[in-house]
Design goal:
The protein has five helices and no strands. The chain is mainly α.
Length: about 110
């Protein structure tokens, strides 16, 4: 489940990339045609969403006990991680730091 969601988010990132980070998008050297990028992202997104639905439905409807289902474990882990992230983000905002512009605005050099 986690890999499918991760790859689905990557497909979504391809769609939003020029709007979110136009400078980095301008440096793309592989598949520069925007129409082809969108077609690849849409195709990948559709297949990944279909696979995700099949995986989740199969997991939820299986005879396995609820505590052994990967979907439940993933949801709990993501819920806890999101809670910690939101709490940390809020703490930074209360300290006068805007994480979006002061921390995540620029990708570090490799």
């Amino acid at each position: 489940v986690s890999m499918l969601v991760n790859f689905l988010l990557i497909a979504c990132a391809v769609v939003t990339f020029p709007r979110v980070n136009p400078q980095l998008h301008a440096q793309i050297t592989f598949v520069r045609d925007r129409g082809l990028q969108l077609a690849i992202a849409a195709t990948a997104g559709a297949f990944l969403l279909g696979l995700l639905i099949v995986q989740v439905v199969g997991d939820i409807t299986s005879a396995t006990p609820w505590y052994l289902k990967s979907t439940i474990a993933w949801l709990v882990a993501m819920g806890l991680g999101s809670f910690v992230f939101a709490k940390s983000w809020r703490k930074l905002r209360n300290q006068g730091v805007d994480p979006r512009t002061e921390i995540f605005n620029e990708i570090p050099r490799e």
